[in-house]
Amino acid sequence: MRPRLLLALGILLPAALLGALWAAPLFTDWTARRDQLAELASARLGRPVTLHGPVRLRLLPRPVVEAEGVSLGPSEDPAGDTLAFSASALRLRLDGAALLLGRIAPREVALVGAELRLPWPPADAAGLPTGLSALSAELVDSRLVLGNLRLDAIQARLTAGDAARGLRAEGRFAWGGLEWRFEAGLGRPGFDGITPIDLTLSMGDASLSARGVLTPDGTVEGSVETAGSDLSLLVPGPPGPFRARGRLTVSPELVAADDLTMDIGGSPARGAIALRLLPEARLDAALQASRLDLDAWLGALRQRPSTLPLGLDLSAEAATFRGVPLRRLRAAAFREAAAGEGAPGRITLSDVSALLPGGTMAELNGATAGERLEAALRFSGTDLRATIDALGAALGLGTDWIAPARLRSGEGRARLVVEPGSVAVPELTATIDGARVSGAGVLRHGPRPALGLGLNLDTLDLEGWLRPGLDWPTASRLLGGIDANLRLAAERARAGNVTLERASLDAALENGRLTLRRLAGRLAGGDLAVSGNALLGTAPRLSDATVELAAPNTRALASLLPPRWALGAALTDQPLTLRGTLNGTPEALALQLGADLGEARLEAAGTLDLPGRKGGGSLTLRHPGAPRFLADALGIHLGEWIGQGSLSLVASLGVGPQGAAAERFDLVAGALRASGALSLALDGPLPRLTGRVAAETILLPAVAWSSRAPLPFLALRGAEGELGISIAQLDPAGLPALADLRGRLRLAGGVLSLEEAEAALGTGTLRGSASLDASREVPRATLSATLRGASINGPVLGLPIDVLTGDADAEARLEATGSSLAALVATLSGNASLAVRRGVLTGLDAAAAGRAAATGDEPALRTALSSGATGFDRLTLRTTLSAGRASLAEGTATGEGVALTLRGDLDLPRAAIDLLATEAPEGPVPPVGIRLTGPIADPRRLPDLTPWQIWRAQR
Fold first, then answer.
1. Residue 718: what pLDDT?
2. Residue burial 251-276, b: 16+ Cβ < 10 Å; e: rest
3. Is the alpha carbon torsion for 768, 772, 773, 775 positive or negative?
4. Are 930 and 903 within 8 A, CB to CB?
């Protein structure tokens, strides 16, 4: 029992003693011992220390005395520094054993929250190392201010060396938003006043080493070397391995590393970097490389905010930006200090220049505001197309739909605004392919790009913008993948020989729907306006597409038509108003058209198949004066043919690649009434017109047979056709009217022929055929006709002696050659015959002449031969024609008291007659006659009475 008690007392008494000794300091007033603690700290730090705040003791995990409110005064050494600073707290780590014995023995001194403001530039450079070399302490959460340079969150240990080694420091600090580790040495000045210094900085696996000497005038000269696997850890640059070596110079105003030989990502470079301390802290860097990636450099500038302004000067023979290759790059950038935590500083770009793809020179000056870049841009080049292709590919926009000949050369200037997801050009003035351009635009890129464009141009060529071979599905896919809002204005917009003056376009493209709000301009002196909507896709669809045109006259518009469609001069002076609407798909496009040209009104409605190039519908044309309209529009004067009256044409039309067809048409033109169906085929070697035409009355005016004007026979060689014709009444001037004329017109091989022709002439029937052969060098016309059972009720031949009444049969076989009416008449040949029964012959009284001859009454004879009428039972005339001269080979008229013989010639080209009519009286009385000679219209009548007079004298 006793041994155990002794053992317990042996353990408890020392423990109690140690506990009492340990607890005793806790009951000590440490604030009252501030002066003692200040003296201990001063001895360790080598400069006066004053404590102002409370003092606390903490025993665990190790004994530490912490005093608040610390001031450190300048060195007491006469040759030392005048540095004075303060700290939020002073920590003294005490020797535990000494503390148990009641003694305060500091082992370590730490300054918490100290702010060291080193004078810069130093007043005495030689004295600074001497004074600082006596400082030995640990800095915790402290700050160093060197001129305008501030290092935060310093955790460092300062160790005072012996008389030779000076001061050593190591630890870490925060600068530029990054944590840096450092080791530094400050030697003691030599007899010449030169102090050796060295510094090693590291960030991640990047490191920087500098060695040099501090001269008495406050400058440092030495060398610097840095290397690492990530350049972006040290400077605002792209990530990647690097190394550099160069000269180091430190002056009161700046810290500079120049003549740097560098290797960045395996690419050699040269450069310099300078940290300016006065008058404001600023970092400047210059880099000259063979190749640069601008995206990485600009990304680093924007994503690495810093409270320190930064100037960056870059130059490279080759560079890339957003995948666009650049040459001869030169750029200067200045980034201002960040305004707040994480806020990017403003970046100013100046003297930025580069050669873009295609050799386009671009110059840029601008600045950023947050994520926004505003810049002034100038450009010039002779191959803008290559530049646009490269930029389009970088923005995800295809430009291969543009024809290669477009956007080749140009120069200009613009204001550029770049924001996340968009590129805007608020101002643009340029000359592109010789055309002046000004305006603004914005492009929002992304999965569905959106383009807003407003341009003013002096000249816009609308043709040749699409590359050859671009099909509609491809074009529709390109247009369907973007949204656009376009406003264009041009002094002149050209398409072929068509020019639209003061043109303006307002259109939008959204989700594959094209809205043409308005396309307007002056077209050939008229006001044009177009609007409508279109739904794009493989089967596009138009809706409410409207075209309006109003012009005071059509002179300029008529010049746009093909020469063969030329309008008459009188019609071109008429005002024009046109309005058309389109709706539907290209395969079934509904068309409504209305046009007023002077007094003419045109209306059309139908459906078009654009891919099939065909369509059909109805057409109506009206005008109050048919002869006037045809003369004004076509230069054809048909007043004598159709008479006076209005014009009305109603037709059902169908057109296609093979031709056009009027399934039904009704025409009213003056006295002309016609209807039928026509078809024009264009798929053969020559146009071919077929169909049928039925007319009520056709008036044929008098023909000027003496005209030598060439007839358009050659036009017959350029077409083919076959028409069935039906004319209720054909009324030729000066000739009996024909009724119910039917026949077939055929044109083939340059030969126009009338076949199977048949008509009613009074009570008779006229049949025949005719042809005009224009395939020959000299055109040839032929006629073959027969007349049976025709009742004559008026003059037939138009001669001084003519058939007035009777029942007639006639035949004719004629032909002629020539290119004019006069030539045809001059070459007319063939034969003709006329047989008339129970009729009357006007121009002489043959029976009275026979009676007067028999009685010897010469006055009565002369009267009977110069006037009167002769009734006959039968009249027969047979004529042979040659070279336009008709010879009456046989001409007889017989009847009661009538034995008349007709002989003579008719010269058609000269319109001259030489006709002898002889009456043979009964018995021995010699024949008496009358000769007609001279012009047909007014021949001379010469009685032929010589044989009769001799016979009478002999009696």
1. 84
2. beebbbbeebebebbebebbbbbbbb
3. negative
4. no
Residue range 418-427: average pLDDT?
87
DSSP string for residues in 509-534:
EETTEEEEEEEEEEETTEEEEEEEEE
Six-digit token string for 675: 């209807």
- Cβ neighbours of residue 471 closer than 8 Å, sequence gap 6 or more: none
Single-letter code of the amino acid located at 686: L
Residue closest to 208 by CA, chosen among 183, 186, 190, 237: 183
- Tell me phi and psi for residue 410, to 5 degrees: 170, 170
What are the two backbone dihedrals, phi and then psi, of residue 569, each rounded to the nearest 5 degrees?
A: -60, -40
d(CA 333, CA 314): 8
Per-residue pLDDT at 123: 45
What phi and psi, each to the nearest 5 degrees, are found at residue 303?
-95, -10
Helix ranges (H only) for 426-492 are: 472-480
What distance, in Å, lies between the first and last C-alpha atoms of the chain? Answer: 224
Q: DSSP class of residue 256?
A: E
Q: How far is it, in rounded angstroms, from Cα 277 to Cα 285?
A: 14
The Cβ-side half-sphere exposure at 9, using a 13 Å CA radius, reads: 6
Contact residues for 685 (Cβ-Cβ < 8 A; gap 6+): none
| Cα–chain center distance at 193 | 77
The model's pTM: 0.64
In the block, which residue shows the tokens 């006055």?
Answer: 859
Position 94: which residue type?
A: L
The least confident of 144-153, 190-199, 241-250, 611-620 is: 144-153
Largest Cα span, the chain: 225
Q: Select, from the ranges 199-213, 702-716, 793-807, 881-895, the one with the highest average predicted confidence (pLDDT).
A: 881-895
Mutual angle of helices 858-866 and 846-855, in 10-degree steps:
170
Cα dihedral sign, 792-795-799-803: positive
Collapse the DSSP code of 788 into the 3-class scheme (helix H, G, I; strand E, B; otherwise coil) and give the result.
strand
Compute the average pLDDT of residues 593-601: 88
CB neighbours of residue 701 within 10 Å: 14
What is the distance between the alpha carbons of residues 438 and 777, in angstroms, rounded to a whole number? Answer: 63
Distance CA 349, CA 365 (A): 5
| Mean pLDDT on 679-701 | 86
For residue 815, pLDDT beyond 90: yes
Percent of the chain topping pLDDT 70 = 80
> What local confidence, expressed as pLDDT, does residue 127 receive?
47
Decide if pLDDT at 11 tops 80. Answer: no
Q: According to the model, what pLDDT value does residue 120 have?
A: 57
Of 441, 534, 530, nearest to 480 by C-alpha is 534
For residue 357, give both structure tokens: 């793809």
DSSP 598: T
Alpha-carbon dihedral 772, 776, 780, 783, rounded to 10 degrees = -50
CA distance 799 to 443: 90
Measured between alpha carbons, how far is 836 from 891 in angstroms, rounded to an integer? Answer: 11
Reduced to 3 states (helix: H, G, I; strand: E, B; else coil), residue 28 is coil
Element spanning 124, H or E? none
126 pLDDT tier (thresholds 50, 70, 90): very low
Q: Specify the amino acid at residue 712.
A: P
Closest CA to 347 of 357, 362, 337: 337
Query: Which DSSP symbol is given to 31?
Result: G
d(CA 283, CA 257) in angstroms, rounded, equals: 11
Residue 538, classified by CB atoms within 10 Å of its CB into exposed (0-12), middle (13-18) or buried (19+), is exposed
- The answer to whether the beta carbons of residues 919 and 899 sit under 8 Å apart is yes
- Asked if 153 and 173 touch (Cβ cutoff 8 Å), the reply is yes
| Residue at 80: amino acid letter | G
Cβ contacts of residue 606 below 8 Å, gap of 6+?
Answer: 590, 591, 615, 616, 617, 618, 653
Backbone angles phi, psi at 288, to 5 degrees: -125, 115
Q: Which amino acid is at 669?
A: A
